[in-house]
């Protein structure tokens, strides 16, 4: 005889009345023992009550796996009360990981064919919740039959079950295609909304279904037009917007059907304009419909005027008081800035105002969009706004803002002086947050602007005298003072007169050397600058020699080595010091300007190759000219002697190139793809350094969710040298937004076979993803 146990209501009251967790566990363990005993005795009358209590215990987080087989027994029962609890227990206690879930397939099949609507509803709910791929394949015919049942209650649940089946087994699409066209004529709200959802799933997973349902675009347009003009039913209206859930679902389906299809896009253009102009924006439901309309307009092949209207809607969203709506608008405009740049530019003042948002996510999106809006016509005004934001922005945004300003200035700088002033302002304001290559880029820029040497060294000297805490600024200033320190003592017409003597310059560099804030690299810059000033200044070098000799015993090995070498230069090779410490030659720059110069050189080479071949008497003169152009080094090979015959001379002239032929392009390689996130590698081998390989990793995102905190790390075999440059960002916007690029510099002097090991970490759809894989199929041209 089973000991009496508590009723469900009494069990809930006793558990809630437990004052400690130990008391709660004691109550539950005691009741679980009664439930086990009841299951063993096989009490058919109270089995559903015992399972109901066990389900409540399961909801509290306690183990309840011993009730799985009881669920199967209750489902097979003929009583509705048993089936109701049994199906509920199956949904909670069973899933695809347990083989027991396959045992209820026959029970669900029998219940679906019984014709009792409540029982059919229970079976369909269970199948749509925990149905595995095997169950979906076995029960698809029964669900298809129920799609055409007269009862709206059963049809609605059958449609939702079909959606689950398509997600589990996409090849079942052909089974549910015919009923969907018939279901579109339904007036029942739940059936119509479920049908639209089912068609959307079919189109996303089956190209055949996508082609099939493009024929019903006019019918979908008519349904949505009826919703907008006359309404569907008042009970489904929200805040004066007629059935916004159905409108949003139809717009999503139209977006899929109209993508890359001209005829379907033309059919829905007028309707989208009507929805965009007639929807009430005073309520959140109207804003949701408008936002979905904007996404549809941007994804299909819509008219230019309609796209401008969509951008203007997003511009109005920027003025909304709701932060979520403003964030959505900024994110959407960031995706559109590449395709509709001029339309987005009209809202630039509003975007700039969003930089002052107190919400960090809003200000970050506004910063990304502001940087994307910078071009050659507005670079001065935009840089003023961004520099003002840099001074007051939160610390976590300062690095992104500084890097963005530097990249935009390098790309759109109107003059070199403006470019130098902009970089100096960034280094002065947020020097510790700039990218590692900012120092080298500014040094190259100043070195290439000979007319601005005096101006630059004076600006940097003043900045260094005010603050020596910004290490990149100190490094650039020390380099410039070492190279152009003699210009400090003269006059510069471009800035106010500066009275500086040699002792002040040396004292400032000594201050940098002695400062606890100076990094070892910064001290190296300062020591080298002092050494160079020994040839630039006219005074006595004893003070410089004393400083150099002090650092001969420095604990930092690199600084000690420099000091020993410089001291040796003073003592043993003083006659060579002036020649060794001459000004640095101009270093070739990498960047947009260098790319433009390379294009001009390539065009000139093509013109020279296209020049007409001269006659034989001019052959020797042409060879001399080509020798001057190509023979930059003394070991350059001379062309073979010309054949004395006129025909031979012409052949040799045509074979002689004016420039070395460009190397064949290395094909790109896709190395990673998961849920719309893709990583591609492109390769470049500079002709002047064949041992160097430049790999550009490009991360793109075609999914519906943003990829955040993206980090790409790489490793190569020990015989190779790898240098990873900083990435262009850490967020890849959804739906083909601005990609992330990162440069890998690989030195392979022995031409060893190249292998890469990559590790990708990022957040996608609120889940953390980490992938580690090896790339062994790199093109042979990348390393041979």
From TrEMBL:
<dbReference type="InterPro" id="IPR017107">
    <property type="entry name" value="AP1_complex_gsu"/>
</dbReference>
<dbReference type="InterPro" id="IPR002553">
    <property type="entry name" value="Clathrin/coatomer_adapt-like_N"/>
</dbReference>
<keyword id="KW-0968">Cytoplasmic vesicle</keyword>
<comment type="similarity">
    <text>Belongs to the adaptor complexes large subunit family.</text>
</comment>
<dbReference type="InterPro" id="IPR016024">
    <property type="entry name" value="ARM-type_fold"/>
</dbReference>
<dbReference type="Pfam" id="PF01602">
    <property type="entry name" value="Adaptin_N"/>
</dbReference>
<protein>
    <recommendedName>
        <fullName>AP-1 complex subunit gamma</fullName>
    </recommendedName>
</protein>
<keyword id="KW-0653">Protein transport</keyword>
<dbReference type="GO" id="GO:0016192">
    <property type="term" value="P:vesicle-mediated transport"/>
</dbReference>
<dbReference type="GO" id="GO:0006886">
    <property type="term" value="P:intracellular protein transport"/>
</dbReference>
<dbReference type="InterPro" id="IPR050840">
    <property type="entry name" value="Adaptor_Complx_Large_Subunit"/>
</dbReference>
<dbReference type="InterPro" id="IPR013041">
    <property type="entry name" value="Clathrin_app_Ig-like_sf"/>
</dbReference>
<feature type="compositionally biased region" description="Low complexity">
    <location>
        <begin position="603"/>
        <end position="613"/>
    </location>
</feature>
<dbReference type="Pfam" id="PF02883">
    <property type="entry name" value="Alpha_adaptinC2"/>
</dbReference>
<dbReference type="InterPro" id="IPR011989">
    <property type="entry name" value="ARM-like"/>
</dbReference>
<keyword id="KW-0472">Membrane</keyword>
<keyword id="KW-0333">Golgi apparatus</keyword>
<feature type="domain" description="GAE">
    <location>
        <begin position="664"/>
        <end position="779"/>
    </location>
</feature>
<keyword id="KW-0813">Transport</keyword>
<dbReference type="GO" id="GO:0030121">
    <property type="term" value="C:AP-1 adaptor complex"/>
</dbReference>
<feature type="region of interest" description="Disordered">
    <location>
        <begin position="591"/>
        <end position="616"/>
    </location>
</feature>
<dbReference type="InterPro" id="IPR008152">
    <property type="entry name" value="Clathrin_a/b/g-adaptin_app_Ig"/>
</dbReference>
<dbReference type="InterPro" id="IPR008153">
    <property type="entry name" value="GAE_dom"/>
</dbReference>
